């Protein structure tokens, strides 16, 4: 079971790296690129799976922290999805990309510092 948990932690970190790395890569001309979009989706999915795995093994889960992180992760995914949709209609909004990247960093800080 530890291997499965570690695998999902790795995938969760890769999702975070894709969002933050993609955001840094497009910093001069912010636009939603596929790594940001898929990284945000992966963050939500792998985060939920990790919480499920923790609950299944009777480990202590800080529900307040998880709730805050879920709300922030959904905001990251929403910014990425809305930014991508607007970009396809030639109505790009660079603030959505910056919000997604900044919120991803905030979520990382919450994970480490809380």
List the main descriptive attributes of the protein structure presented here.
114 residues; mainly alpha; 4 helices; 82% helix
What does this protein structure show overall?
This protein has 114 residues and is mainly α. Helices cover 82% and strands 0% of the residues. It contains four helices and no strands. Helix 1 (2-25) runs antiparallel to helix 2 and helix 3 packs antiparallel against helix 4 (94-113). The protein is elongated, with a radius of gyration of 15 Å. The model has no long low-confidence stretch (mean pLDDT 94).
Q: Secondary structure elements and their pairing?
A:
Blueprint: H1 2-25, H2 34-56, H3 63-88, H4 94-113
Head-to-tail CA distance between termini:
25 Å
Helical segment tally? 4
**Which range best describes the helical content: under 10%, 10-25%, 25-40%, 40-55%, 55-70% or over 70%?**
over 70%
Number of E-state strands: 0
Shape: elongated
The oligomerization state is single chain
N-to-C order of helices and strands: HHHH
Task: Give the class from helix and strand content and strand pairing.
Answer: mainly alpha
Low-confidence stretches: none
Radius of gyration: 15 Å
Average pLDDT taken over every residue: 94
Briefly say what this structure is.
This protein is mainly α and 114 residues long.
